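G., the chain you wanted modeled:
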Amino acid sequence: MNTKILKAIATKDILEVKQNKAAWMPMVIVPLIFVLLIPLGLILIPQFLDIPIDEFLADPDLEIFLANMPPSLQQTLEGLDPIQSALVMALGYMFAPLFLIFPLMFSTVIAAESFAGERERKTMEALLYTPATDSELFMGKVLAAFIPALILTWGSFFGYMIVVNAASFPLFGRIWFPLPSWWPLMFWIAPALALLGISATVLISVRNQTFMGAYQLSSSLLWSW
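Predicted structure as tokens:
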């Protein structure tokens, strides 16, 4: 494959997305909510309101959950007080699946718009007249969605890491996040899942005549995973 052609196709699509506020605004708002507002709320609000964490952890269902956790997870919580344990469970484990959703969330609009958008703008014929092969067109469209999604996901992860450690440092007295399981999650599983989802969405875009049709079909397919 010709890397110059791939770069040209991907760059063109990324520049088109930058000019469309409806496409990139959710990519800014969603991380702010899940990376900044919710973690800060979970860490700071209980301290200001003096919520009795001990009573919360005394819930029978939660006690059963904690008792049946895998040994490796129980070791992570050893030596922690109730507040610290609650934060590790919520921010260290329960938030992890959200970062698998982020790359799909960020890329769905770009990938769905790839070929369907070209048809709506009446630029598909001009694209097909270029010297790019079908494989290069496909890979260029995939990269146009994959690269921004991966950059935003990793940026969200590092922002989340800073927010969690900074806000919870007075409670822990140390930097405790990320947990070891986050590294393969962010740098192996998330990129692989994003690439698979984006490829499927671009294929859907090839078969649809309109962007909205491709977006709705791809969204229903990806979120059903």
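Residues 3-223 form one domain.

Shout if anything looks off.
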